[in-house]
Design a protein that fits this description.
Layout (H helix, E strand, L loop, with lengths): L2 H13 L1 H6 L2 H5 L5 H12 L11 E2 L2 E2 L3 H4 L7 H5 L8 H14 L12 E3 L1 H13 L5 E5 L5 H10 L2 E5 L10 H12 L4 E6 L12 H16 L3 E7 L16 H5 L6 E8 H4 L8 E6 L7 H16 L7 H12 L3 H23 L8 E3 L7 E6 L4 H12 L4 E3 L3 E5 L8 H16 L1
Parallel strand pairs: 4-5, 4-6, 6-7, 7-8
Antiparallel strand pairs: 1-2, 3-9, 8-9, 10-11, 11-13, 12-13
Helix pairs in contact: 1-14, 8-9, 8-14, 10-11, 17-18
The protein binds pyridoxal-5'-phosphate.
Length: 436
């Protein structure tokens, strides 16, 4: 093992041995190399005559660039737009995102979390988590309605075993009983379980209530207290888009931090969906654990391992994207801009609810509970989802997503409010066509 990795492992173990136990074999081996990067950083400080360390190009002391590129980038210097960012991400963005986490999640008050490490959006963040914390054969607990890419990220790439519980009970509430049973049975005779929590949920658009969130946390805590290490990964891709009173308005991550030595929470979130910059590919990984004494050192060690995983996969996330997201977050109008978009999305969600109240649809589908996010999902009663999807596309030019046998996902995030009625009437008509 590399001596730097072993030093980081010692620091983590001193802070909390169970967190060390939870690392995958790759995670235990990970470290942030000192080589070129640290020599370059040293030279940046001290090489006042010639600095010929880093694989970038300069001209008269400035970042070399093509004018045709910089002509398209207003408000940023070539140094900000074009140079490599650190593998950790640029510090001002990491700090700004951390401050925002505290203000968006009041239950974090007084709790210590790591400085977020920047990833190439959440998908890459999940892959980093998968490398660092998941070994082949590990169990990942997920609801039966989930984002399909978890399968590629955890099962195909890392050989984990996804185990499902049913997301909803018969009353259209989060199925606490199924969740608890699943966790209890999977934790029996296992040293570690991984639980993915995704609210607002893709594909249903469901977010739990504060009461349900409390119970979820208690159930996880109970498993941890019985001696199984629990890694709680929250995928907060659609964070903030909570439209109804019953939805909790903060990440469940905030409730999980510091609960039990055997419970480590990892928050994955990003500017991609939250700030409507999907293609800029900016995400974050933040840790919230329980440590003996000072948490700064073990968090720092975890950040270094995480940055090592970033370095070994994509080297670093786009500097240009990081600067754009940072400048936007620092702008005076940032909050009001976000509020404006939030209200548009909320109006659409409310319109979907209003339209779906029509009793005529009852014979055709049930609606899964939704109160947040970009999506909602229909459970079809009389026809299968895939033939209906193809029919709607070919006959009416309407594109939706079929999931499994009977579920049809609607991204109302892409629908104007005025078009909601027509969309569902078209789906209804499409079903009638197929029933004949
Ligand atoms: C639940 C969930 N997590 C993560 C992602 C990916 O997000 P990103 O674009 O930040 O990689 C998606 C995108 O569809 C998603 O639905």
């Amino acid at each position: 093992m590399n001596p730097i990795a072993s030093e980081l492992n010692d620091i983590i173990t001193q802070g909390n041995e169970h967190i060390y136990e939870m690392l995958s074999n790759v995670g235990k081996e990970l470290f942030f190399p000192k080589g070129i990067l640290s020599q370059g950083a040293e030279a940046k400080e001290k090489a006042h005559k010639f600095n010929a360390t880093i694989g970038m190009a300069t001209e008269k002391g400035r970042t070399m660039h093509l004018s045709s590129i910089m002509a398209m980038v207003k408000g940023l210097a070539p140094r900000q737009a074009l140079t490599y960012a650190p593998s950790f991400g640029i510090l001002p963005l990491r700090e700004t995102w951390r401050n925002a986490l505290y203000s968006k999640n009041p239950s974090l008050a007084g709790k210590e979390i790591s400085i977020p490490v920047v990833t190439h959006a959440i998908t890459h963040g999940l892959s980093v988590v998968s490398d660092m914390w998941v070994d082949p054969g590990d169990v990942i607990i997920l609801p039966d309605k989930m984002w399909g890419n978890y399968n590629l990220i955890f099962s195909v790439r890392r050989g984990a075993r996804i185990v499902h519980y049913s997301l909803f009970d018969d009353h259209g509430k989060f199925n606490l009983e199924a969740f608890e049973t699943c966790l209890q049975s999977q934790s029996k005779d296992r040293q570690k379980i991984i639980v993915m929590l995704n609210f607002p949920n893709n594909p249903t658009g469901y977010t739990v209530s504060p009461g349900e969130a409390d119970r979820i946390v208690e159930i996880m805590e109970k498993v941890a207290q019985k001696g199984t290490n629990v890694l709680a990964v929250t995928d907060d891709a659609y964070f903030g888009l909570f439209y109804e009173d019953d939805a909790i308005k903060e990440s469940i991550f905030a409730r999980l931090v510091g609960r039990d030595p055997r419970l480590l929470a990892i928050k994955l979130d990003g500017a991609t969906k939250e700030n409507f910059v999907w293609g800029l590919r900016i995400g974050f990984i933040t840790y919230g654990g329980f440590f003996k004494g000072d948490s700064e050192k073990p968090y720092d060690a975890l950040e270094k391992k995480t940055a090592g995983a970033v370095r070994g996969s994509i080297s670093s996330a786009s500097h240009l994207s990081q600067e754009i997201v940072l400048k936007s977050m620092q702008s005076e109008t940032y909050r009001s801009e976000k509020m404006e978009k939030f209200l548009i999305m909320k109006e659409r969600a409310q319109e979907v609810k209003r339209v779906l109240e029509d009793l005529k649809y009852q014979e055709a589908w049930d609606v899964y509970p939704f109160n947040s996010g970009y999506f909602m999902c229909l459970n079809l009663k009389t026809v299968e989802a895939e033939p209906l999807r193809v029919h709607l596309l070919e006959k009416y030019g309407v594109g939706l997503i079929s999931l499994g046998k009977a579920d049809l996902r609607v991204a109302f995030s892409c629908l104007e409010k005025e078009d909601v009625q027509e969309l569902f009437d078209t789906v209804f008509q499409g079903i009638k066509d197929l029933e004949q």
